[in-house]
Amino acid sequence: MTVALITGAGGGIGSAIARRLSRAGMSVAVADRDAVSGAAVAEEVGGLFIPLDVTRPEDNQAAVAKTISVYGRLDVAVLNAGVPGQCGLHDFTPERYRETMAIDLDGVVYGLDACVPALRPRGGSVVVVSSLAGLASSPDIFYAAAKHALIGLVRSAAMLVSADGIRVNALCPGLADTPIIAPFRQSLVDAGLVIADPDQIAETVELILADKRTGLAWVAQAGQAAAPVEYPRVTIAGTTGETSGHGR
């Protein structure tokens, strides 16, 4: 039995991932702060619902503990919970900036901290949901800042936990048909942009889990085959030679 914990699984990409992994035969723990939608998805996939506010470290610890208490183990963690930026440069407030970072960055850090010790006994896989905005510029400036930070987190964490048999990779979806883009979906379509079905993004999670590499950022967009991107190669100067800092 393979057990997966998915955060932000009450809707959008998270719920699509829950359905995909359940169809693949995994036992799924659906974690979300929305009890109604989260419980509905858990019932649909025959899984476990866990109330979770990712901005609270103790909630993340409790979600992992609950998953293990019910299923006896944890093999996969998909850290998916996220929100669009709550402000920009034109309407900046520290409170709304912190709300963005608390969910989009801190929530993943807390999730990683909670799940890595649980994965160590058998090894396992962590998939962090970043975004194309984590690889390129975006008008949603603080969302992009958080998503860029997640790429650095993934690359560095992958290096640190590989000896424990734990792989850490990022999923970077393009535009997907989720509630996040609902307010401006039509304008995106009118601009000629293609929007992916969330199930295509969820399919990429299965590809990541089947792949044996770690520290990669996988891009998933409508009409394109999912694949990891090439990181820039940065040469670090040293007295005994040069070391290239890049992804695995």
UniProtKB/TrEMBL annotation:
SUPFAM superfamilies: NAD(P)-binding Rossmann-fold domains. InterPro entries: NAD(P)-bd_dom_sf (IPR036291), Sc_DH/Rdtase_CS (IPR020904), SDR_fam (IPR002347). Transmembrane segments: none annotated. Keywords: Oxidoreductase. This is SDR family oxidoreductase. PANTHER family: DEHYDROGENASES, SHORT CHAIN (PTHR24321), ESTRADIOL 17-BETA-DEHYDROGENASE 8-RELATED (PTHR24321:SF8). Gene3D superfamilies: NAD(P)-binding Rossmann-like Domain. It comes from Nonomuraea longispora. Belongs to the short-chain dehydrogenases/reductases (SDR) family. One of its GO terms (molecular function) is oxidoreductase activity. Pfam families: adh_short.
